[in-house]
Amino acid sequence: MRIDIITVQPGLLESPFSHSILKRAQDKGLLEVHVHNLRDYSTLKHKQVDDYQFGGGAGMVMMMEPLVKAIEHLQAQFTYDEVIYLTPDGETLNQPMANQLSLKGNLLLLCGHYKGIDERFRQHFVTKEISIGDYVLSGGELAAAVLVDALGRLLPGVLNDETSALFDSFQDHLLAPPVYTRPEEFRGWRVPDVLLSGDHRKIDDWRHDQALERTRLRRPDLLQKGEENDKEKGPAKG
Ligand code: 6GU
Predict the structure, then answer these.
(1) Ligand 1 centre distance from Cα of residue 185 (Å)
(2) For the whole prediction, is pTM greater than 0.90?
(3) pLDDT value, residue 213
(4) Does the CB atom of residue 156 touch ligand 1 within 6 A?
(5) Ligand 1 near 236 CB (within 6 A)
(6) What CATH number does residue 182 fall under?
(7) Which pLDDT score, from 0 to 100, does residue 129 have?
(8) Which tens digit of pLDDT belongs to each residue from 8-27?
(9) Rounded-to-5 percentages of helix, strand, coil across the chain
(10) Pair 174, 131 in one domain
(11) Which of 20, 125, 151, 236 is 20 to 30 A (C-alpha) from 109?
């Protein structure tokens, strides 16, 4: 997967992809991330990329020309499956969306700043708008980093244990169960006996019960979503 990111703050995106899992994904050639400075596409004297909004009001708007120059420069070299604008008024990112996007080839991400981008760019170039939650960030860069992380770890071959993404929180509308490591006892606090029993059926059942209970308490909305999906799929066959 190739991901191009257009931003006015390239410095913010210098390091998040050079660590851990995303670094490994790139080292293995499974993921390429390229960051582009929007100012490089400005033809104005101070490399200006924003302007006052028509109709008045505080806050600058990212202008058409540099955005179009940047995207057309990239589109002349690569074909993108989605042009994604990171904006607080986009669709909220969730695991099913991350799963879907991880199956795409090339993605172009555009980080919003100031009051946002000229509406005409959204209408004529953007194919998908994504928010990472109901709070406001000072720009789309950190949201883009979150999205790239969520996608990168899903690419086949990126995770060491290829099955482990299957058991993430949210993959089946359940939060993940509690986990423990050595020692078996720390300050008198013991690891649940079942995990030491060696009985894998019992352990799977316990984990499922714990995941269900945790989800009931913390995110009952997820259980409802899971039920709705099961209804859509219809009764299991075979
Ligand atoms: Cl994508 N951008 C900004 N500026 N704020 C956000 C966001 C994006 N998602 C949540 N808050």
Answers:
(1) 43
(2) yes
(3) 98
(4) no
(5) no
(6) 1.10.1270.20
(7) 98
(8) 999 999 999 999 899 999 99
(9) 40, 20, 40
(10) no
(11) 20
Please work out whether the CB of residue 93 comes within 6 Å of at least one atom of ligand 1.
no
- pLDDT at residue number 235: 59
Confirm whether 164 is domain-assigned: no
b or e along 56-78 (b: 16 or more beta carbons within 10 Å of the residue's beta carbon)?
A: eeeeebbbbebbbebbeebeeee
The count of structural domains within the chain is 2
Q: 135 among the known binding-site residues?
A: yes
Q: Is 134 annotated as a binding residue?
A: yes
24/131 same-domain check: yes
Question: Are the beta carbons of 3 and 107 closer than 8 angstroms?
Answer: yes
Last residue of a domain, one of 152, 178, 206: 152
Whole-number pLDDT of residue 218: 98
**130 CA closest ligand 1 atom index:** 1
Ligand 1 within 6 A of 87 CB?
A: yes
Same domain, 204 and 116: no
Residue to mutate, 12, 87, 92, 109, ligand 1, most ligand atoms under 8 Å from C-beta: 87
* Regions of the chain where pLDDT drops below 50: 236-238
In this prediction, residue 237 carries a pLDDT of 43
Ligand 1 pocket residue status of 112, Cβ below 6 Å: yes
Strand partners of residue 83: 108
From CA 235, how far away is CA 238, in angstroms rounded? 10
Cα 7 from Cα 110, distance rounded (Å): 6
Atom from ligand 1 closest to the CA of residue 86:
1
**Ligand 1 neighbourhood includes 116 CB (under 6 angstroms):** no
Q: Which tens digit of pLDDT belongs to each residue from 195-205? A: 999 999 999 99
Decide if the complex's ipTM is over 0.95. Answer: yes
**Residues 20 and 117 both lie in one domain:** yes
Q: Facing residues of 6 across strands?
A: 36, 110
